[in-house]
Specification:
The structure is a single chain. This protein has two domains: 3-115, DNA polymerase, domain 1 (Orthogonal Bundle), CATH 1.10.150; 120-159. The protein is built from eight helices and no strands. It has helices spanning 3-13, 18-39, 43-46, 56-68, 73-92, 109-118, 122-135, 140-159. It is elongated, with a radius of gyration of 21 Å.
Length: 160
């Protein structure tokens, strides 16, 4: 029996509504297909071993890819909820020690702004900002200070 079918049975046992269960299955399959494209690892082949890739880092990368592709906020957060339930399932089966999906917060509107900015290399963004400041006739010392502050902020943002 394939992993999504086992998960479906788990949802039935948990008395999850049929509509919610259907959405969870669609969303988990979306994640598993995304994971297969990213890693080349297919759940149909590795089965429960796929949970070895069910890490906070992987889940955050998935969330970021959804943000970059401009997935609607409600859909994105529904997918994350489905993955939390999938992680709960993996933990109940003792295939996971911890549900890593619980560590990934739902997206908020401002996440879309940050993800679209993070697609461009920082120096490209700073170059455009410099050009804008020069057009506005801002002094070179002020530009230098602005750029220093922004580089510091962007470095902090990447580490956050």
């Amino acid at each position: 029996m394939l992993l999504p079918e086992i998960f479906k049975n788990y949802l039935i046992i948990k008395k999850i509504s049929p509509v919610t269960a259907k959405n969870y299955l669609v969303d988990v399959n979306h994640f598993l297909n995304w994971l297969a494209k990213k890693t080349g690892v297919k759940h149909q082949i590795v089965g429960k071993a796929i949970f070895g890739l069910f890490t906070e880092e992987t889940l955050k990368e998935y969330k970021n890819d959804l943000l970059i592709s401009k997935t609607p906020l409600s859909t994105l957060n529904r997918r994350l909820s489905a993955l939390r339930k999938f992680g709960e399932f993996g933990k109940k089966q003792e295939w996971l020690k911890e549900n890593e999906a619980e560590k990934v917060a739902n997206a908020i509107k401002s996440d879309f702004i940050i993800s679209s900015v993070s697609k461009q290399p920082n120096e490209e963004i700073l170059g455009k900002f410099t050009q804008h400041l020069e057009t506005e006739k801002v002094s070179s010392i002020t530009i230098k200070n602005y750029l220093s502050d922004l580089r510091h902020f962007l470095g902090w943002l990447e580490g956050a």
